[in-house]
Amino acid sequence: MGFEVYYRTFTCGELGPDYVGQQATLAGWVNRRRDHGGLIFLDIRDRYGITQVVCDPERSPESHRVAAELRSEYVVQVSGKVVMRLPGTENPHLSTGAIEIAADQLVILNPSRTTPFPISNDSTPVDESLRLKYRYLDLRRPKMRDNMILRHRVVKLIRDYLDEQGFLEIETPILMKSTPEGARDYLVPSRIYSGEFYALPQSPQQLKQLLMVAGLDRYFQIARCFRDEDQRADRQPEFTQLDLEMSFVSEDDVMSLIEGLVISLIEKTTNKRIKELSFPRLSYKHVMDRYGTDHPDLRFDLPLVEITDLAGAGNFGVFKNALAAQGMVKGIRVPGAGGYSRKEVEELTEFARMLGAKGLVSLAIQASGEVKSPLTKFMAGQGVQAIIDRLEGKPGDLLLFVADSAKVCNDVLFRLRVKLAERLKLIDQNELALCWVVDFPLLHYDEEAQRYDAEHNPFSGMDEEHISRLDSDPLNVRAKQYDIICNGYEIGGGSVRINVAALQHKVFSLMNMDDEQIKEQFGHMLEAFEYGAPPHGGIALGIDRFIMLLADEESIRDVIAFPKTQSAMDLLMNAPSPVDDKQLRELHLQIRPEERR
Amino acid sequence: MGFEVYYRTFTCGELGPDYVGQQATLAGWVNRRRDHGGLIFLDIRDRYGITQVVCDPERSPESHRVAAELRSEYVVQVSGKVVMRLPGTENPHLSTGAIEIAADQLVILNPSRTTPFPISNDSTPVDESLRLKYRYLDLRRPKMRDNMILRHRVVKLIRDYLDEQGFLEIETPILMKSTPEGARDYLVPSRIYSGEFYALPQSPQQLKQLLMVAGLDRYFQIARCFRDEDQRADRQPEFTQLDLEMSFVSEDDVMSLIEGLVISLIEKTTNKRIKELSFPRLSYKHVMDRYGTDHPDLRFDLPLVEITDLAGAGNFGVFKNALAAQGMVKGIRVPGAGGYSRKEVEELTEFARMLGAKGLVSLAIQASGEVKSPLTKFMAGQGVQAIIDRLEGKPGDLLLFVADSAKVCNDVLFRLRVKLAERLKLIDQNELALCWVVDFPLLHYDEEAQRYDAEHNPFSGMDEEHISRLDSDPLNVRAKQYDIICNGYEIGGGSVRINVAALQHKVFSLMNMDDEQIKEQFGHMLEAFEYGAPPHGGIALGIDRFIMLLADEESIRDVIAFPKTQSAMDLLMNAPSPVDDKQLRELHLQIRPEERR
Question: What EC number(s) does its UniProt record assign (chains A, B) (predicted)?
């Protein structure tokens, strides 16, 4: 059984001056070839680095002959002697930059066609659909390779950390039960049970809670989750989360654990600076007031300031109308922007309109202290000054206001705040600003469906002293819920859960489920809670998003090996695709006649 | 934000004599309650152990009152002082058996109904469907809890080992493309692309090869795989494999790596003995000849011996008929079984018939040397003796023969061999006998489909010197394939792959695929091979099966947290289940009218 074949004795990233004089065999891809002074220089690349090879016709005519045939991305094997480069030709950017291989033997292991985009230089912009179709080439590019390595390291560190803390990683099924609650499920038809379906899990929420009922105490999983949603923004049909649950804990236990984990991950895998090592814990009300969102970017301040109480002082129609409609007036101070041109202010106004505002009210405080604003015609100086004072406006500042419903004010100013920070260059790209948002309401009222709905998920627990409010004042029940935010992205969220069947039933009832529906969909959970369910809580962290932030990427697709397009298509494998009618028949299905192609 | 609640200061597994005199708070389940001499003794259980609590009405009347209410599986919190147990009442079976807690405070955190089966005593046999319906209770039982812990440890050790060896764990998609090759796919209808489907992966085979083309060099994944097959034997619709691929390797590199991994896992997680630390590498032909199977149990010898060439010597009809049909005669020596009663031999014969044999020919060598066999009437003594000699029969032995097609002979004798080993008590339950099977044929001929088919998968490479045989003698092309066997189970298999487009195309052609089909199904692979595909190979190990062997379980369901039944049903969640017609409409599907319920 003679299958001892040795392709290499070293990788392309490990040779240096210490190895000079040794024979080495490398295998890898031709990153670059240069012909110079009768010699051929090859940069051979693998995952670990790049090593320069010199093919000298006097040393090995055969190697030189083979080298002359080589083109980029050919796979080669080369043997030769490690030698120092000539003084002045070292490459300080390469770990192997002091040495080169004097080739004695060179073999083409596999040729390559010309790649559809360059591999060695990944600053060239490439159309994303081309990158996805040829993902196996895209992943050769240094940045993508580094993203895959970073992802491996982060996930490995998560596992190490949680293992040390006594957590068990437990796999939960992918073939699950469909629950009409929440987002849309991906369904999987059953062949054995005609007309019945499995669903892919949106998260292992119920099973991780059942693992706590099972007494397993500390569970986690790097879990694949699925949502068949329209892929607005930067979403994927399947995504990965760190899913975690603990027994006999309060909110503080879960938050402390995660804080330690996240800090450790950042410190071990990046050079980024964490703004506050003890993550601020901010109430939902505070962040909605101050930032207009429950996932604020805290790398910069630029707070929003409500002036609803001051806005009725004069006779300014824009403000008056908002007040008449039970609305809100809210502003933001843009430091040093008092001198923005009319065009610049108009651009910002256009941006606000795109986001749904009717417009922006501007107030520029000139260096002289003079105020320029449409407001001054309709409001006495004292009223205007009260507003300026409230926003702490100083000479040279620009104040911008939105008058509308609270929702529109917040939605618009939240995004305007970020846009202004970019414009004012207030954002340090090397900083990570993390915080917790807590004190969420348990429920909100869904006007469309005419019922209460869980703010996060129906399993979240609530403050004990608020339980009685479920009947009297359900919108003012505070949940034991916490979200973790990084640079304006919600990277995770969790809660201490309900573990009492009657209370869980009550929450489902508030969501307008009748007893029949509750039993059909969640009967197993309610039953489990009757067999000694311990107090428990947990969290889920979005792995793709978190790694995107660590890798300084703009899209989660750049940290996923084989992502789908925004329209859920796999361009490499060409999925989804039609299937045989035989397959459909076995599944007791047919395409609806009007849609059959 | 007052959410600092401390449920416990210790787990139920950590207190011992060193802690005597300290106050401790524990939380857990009531494992057992005993009332004795006016005191109430509680065994409180969590994942980590059991601690005894004594409720003395003189020390804490309230705790004693609460304790009197307690029943099994109530969740409680208890505070008290760690004290030594009275001499003579220590429990050496518990790590905490020297101490107990003198209760000062006892709180019921959650009561429990009477469980449908006992938790604290897991030797009670329980109907499996009941266990699966109440899996959250089944997992509380000590053996199941230990299986989950073992599984976590094994998988963590795999990751640690491969990380140290430079492997990257890379996630591949679950929403893939359907390929009619191989087993039946689970399909997932697309909402966006009417009439099109994703498929759940049977393995990440193609993507891991593409990761090698991407230059990532060493990949692994603990990968979920799916097969919609009838669940004969001990299979699950979804299962987990260690999926692994390496670049620039020969068969030996992969096998050595896996051998090191498997030995390390066994040594770190069990007390089992590995029969041979350097796993024997046996050829496919050798194991088929000697054991009648390509996954032999090597904990015992009991070889099969072919006597086809000797079987025609006399005029024994059973042998003659097999020979006339181009069949085989093969036997096994059962040491010391020469004195088996007619009834015992008849039982073995019945067993062979169940497996498809027409019968068994027996030959008993009595202590005296006298031979008792139907054979003696039809074959000269010399002929009989030649057969006895071939099997190395000794006085006191029983020889058993099957005369049939090679397939039937092997299928029957393979299982008969295992049954005999059990009967003769030749199997050491504490031993793990591992081996590699190599030198597989690349292809076999599928009589039913009238075409060649890959013995393992169509991506397996072949001996370079055999490539030309693809045209002349395809059945004699040797694959670069290796299977790893443990105690008669195939726990893994892999190969060095094809990395040349033309050769891969040739193999698909031999499997009767036309150019159109090849392009449609595997075009992306063939194209990838044209862009510098390195030599590569890998393996997949069945995690469920391997952990089952380590845990001494009989079924993989006992090492999976939430398995499905043999008929692919989830009894806990009740999946699969019917879905709303709205969901089906969104997927452009309807149930076939004749099947609609």
Answer: 6.1.1.23
Q: Which long-range contacts (CB under 8 A, 24 or more apart) does A422-426 make?
A: A424/A334, A424/A335, A424/A336, A424/A337, A426/A299, A426/A300, A426/A302
> Residue A547: which of A505, A468, A592, A489 has the closest Cα?
A489
Give the C-alpha separation, A63 to A59, whole Å.
9
Q: What is the DSSP letter of B295?
A: S
Residue B144 belongs to what H/E stretch? helix B142-164
**Residues of chain A contacting B250 with CB distance shorter than 8 Å:** 3-7
The residue with tokens 């089906």 is B584
Residue with token string 């207190």 = B15
Q: Which residue of B has its CA nearest to A219?
A: B152
Question: Which token pair is B264?
Answer: 């390390």
Q: Where are the beta strands (DSSP E) in A345-414?
A: 361-365, 371-372, 398-404
Distance CA B315, CA B377 (A): 9
> Environment class of residue A500 by beta-carbon count within 10 Å: exposed (0-12), middle (13-18) or buried (19+)?
middle
**Residue B309 DSSP SS3:** helix
Establish whether B545 is an annotated binding residue: yes
Show residues of chain B in contact with A195, CB under 8 Å.
578, 591, 595-597
Chain A contacts in chain B segment 31-60 (CB below 8 A): 45-48
Largest Cα–Cα distance in chain A? 97
Q: Is B590 on the interface with A (CB under 8 A)?
A: yes
Q: Where are the domains of chain B?
A: 17-110, 153-281+435-558, 300-427
A415 CB neighbour count, 10 Å cutoff: 17
Which of B171, B439, B564 lies nearest to residue A561, judging by beta carbons?
Answer: B171
Rg (CA), chain B: 30
**All residues at 6 or more sequence positions from A36 whose CB lies less than 8 Å from its CB, including other chains:** none
Q: How far apart are CA B576 and CA B14, in angstroms?
A: 42
Per-10-residue mean pLDDT of chain A, 597 residues long, equals: 72 97 97 95 97 98 97 97 95 95 97 96 88 98 97 98 98 92 90 95 97 98 94 86 98 97 98 96 98 98 97 94 96 95 96 96 94 94 96 97 97 97 96 97 90 90 93 94 97 97 96 93 96 98 98 96 96 94 93 69
Spell out the CATH class of A17-110: mainly beta
Between A and B, how many residue pairs show a Cβ–Cβ distance under 8 A? 376
Scanning every residue of chain A, which has its alpha carbon at the shortest distance from the alpha carbon of B27? A248
Burial B428-450 (b: 16+ CB within 10 A, else e): eeeebbbbbbbbbbbbeeeeeee
Q: How many CA atoms lie within 13 A of B214 on its CB side?
A: 31
A153-281+435-558 fold:
BirA Bifunctional Protein; domain 2 (3.30.930)
Asked whether this complex has an ipTM greater than 0.90, the answer is: yes
Q: Name residues whose C-beta falls within 8 Å of residue B215's C-beta, 6 or more positions apart in sequence.
A: A28, A29, A45, A46, A47, A139, A140, A145, B247, B534
Name the residue among B173, B250, B438 with its Cβ closest to that of A238. Answer: B173
Q: In A, which residues are within 8 Å of B499 by CB distance? A: 110
Distance CA A577, CA B518 (A): 15
How many angstroms separate the Cα of A8 from the Cα of each of A76, A454, B67?
Answer: 11, 58, 69
pLDDT in tens, B169-197: 999 999 999 877 678 999 999 999 999 99
Query: Which pTM does this prediction carry?
Result: 0.96
Binned at pLDDT 50, 70 and 90, residue B596 comes out as: low
Q: Using the beta-carbon criterion (under 8 Å), do B570 and A175 form an inter-chain contact?
A: yes
Dig out the tokens for A264 from the structure: 């450790």
CB contacts of B200 in chain A (<8 Å) are: 174, 188
Q: What tokens does A252 get?
A: 């503080």
Same fold, A17-110 and A300-427: no
